[in-house]
Amino acid sequence: MKRPITKVLITLLLTLSFTFYSFSQEPKPFKPTIKWNLKSQFWLRYSDLNEGSEIHGEPTSDFFDVSIRRLRIPVSSQITPKIFAYAIFGGNNYNFKGDSFPIGVLDLYIEYSFFKQFEIGFGKSGWQGLNRWNIRSSMTLMGLDSPLFTLNSVEINDDIGRLFGFWFKGQADKFDYRMTFNRPFYVKKIPNGSVNFANNKPRVKTSAYVKYQIFEHESNKSAYQIGTYLQNKKVFNIGAGFQFQPEAMSDGDANLPETNIYDISHFAADSFLNLPLANGNAITAYLGYYDYDFGKNYIRNVGANNPTTGGGTDFNGPGVAFPMIGTGTTWYGQFGYAFKQTQILNHLTVIQPNIAVQYSDWDALNNHMTVYDFTVNFLINGSQGNKISLGYQHRPIFEAETLKQKDYKGMAVLQYQISLK
């Protein structure tokens, strides 16, 4: 039966009216979003110190201390659909050696997104190339601490890995890329005989990193790569990158004609896997190869959150330091296994034991350098923002004269990590 003509006209009129109303309305105004957080890592530590270590002039062979390893206050705002602003306030290594609590500006930058495949930014940031772990999310680390050797110029001509510069980045199909141009900070200390960072005008450090994402894609909203996704994401990436800074190193005053000048030239390739399993558990694994060239026989001892103030009779120097960074090659691997949530003291908890190994062949040493890190994480309700970690680092000791390994020493840490939103 045919519909009455009046019903047809009324239906048509209502449809046209709704269509006209929809097109005549102005777009809803964009409301900027602001997000912030407060994150911190507390350390309770026992250290077997390197021989000859001193704390305020007193010889000390072992030491117990409490410290705040990291404090981070990230603030971000999507100002417009195209403009993104980001800042991090905080610092590292608040401990008994200082009576102040300085909170610095670690990151402060702005980005503009032309489209997903091409975004640009500038300011002070952690945007750098070379490898996945060059700059990473400290709150999602699988190990107790980050692989600090990847921050290869940390606290010499940068600010905890951050520099002033500009970059462009993007994601196209399965590829994720970044390319950065940063101006390192001026180096005031003059090298004397051995190769070190040059006291000349700092040249631009150019770096890039490209990864191919086989399974789920990772976000590139910030520079900081995730350490472990636990059971939450299936990821397998393969990447490669470089860093280059001309005339960055010297073996004396860089302004004198007889001084030898060296470029910094680094290359790295790596892979990262996070695989949820059918039984509710998950695997996280990483393997990377690093080729560092700082110039002839460059070597640097680093001790994270080092409790000592001087001394040290072995090549390692005082405290918990070991030959972490240098000219040469490194293999670095991590493997962790996250068990599905289980009840512990009336709290659902994810337990994640893991191990990390740095195996380095530094030109300056007469033996390979191998350090082991063992960690067990207890993530309450599976949250990185409420995590207890128990870690042990097994580091090599090298003789000062022969530059050969003679011993191992250890450091045990109980860490509590919290995130307040």
Architecture overview:
- This protein is mostly beta strands and 421 residues long.
- The protein has one domain: Porin.
- Helices cover 5% and strands 53% of the residues.
- It contains one helix and 24 strands.
- Strands 2-5-6-7-8-9-10-12-13-14-15-19-21-22-23-24 form a 16-stranded antiparallel β-barrel. The chain has a three-stranded antiparallel β-sheet with strand order 4-3-17, with no helix packed on it. A two-stranded antiparallel sheet has the order 16-18.
- A hairpin with a 6-residue loop joins strand 23 and strand 24.
- The longest helix has 20 residues.
Q: What is the number of independent domains? A: 1
Mean pLDDT: 93
* Binned strand content: over 45%
Determine the structural class based on helices, strands and strand pairing: mainly beta
CATH superfamily: Porin
Characterize the biggest β-sheet: 16 strands, antiparallel, barrel
DSSP E strands, number: 24
CATH architecture: Beta Barrel
Strands of the widest sheet, in order across it, are: 2-5-6-7-8-9-10-12-13-14-15-19-21-22-23-24
The geometry reads as globular
**pLDDT below 50 for ≥5 consecutive residues: which ranges?**
12-24
Q: H/E series, N to C?
A: HEEEEEEEEEEEEEEEEEEEEEEEE
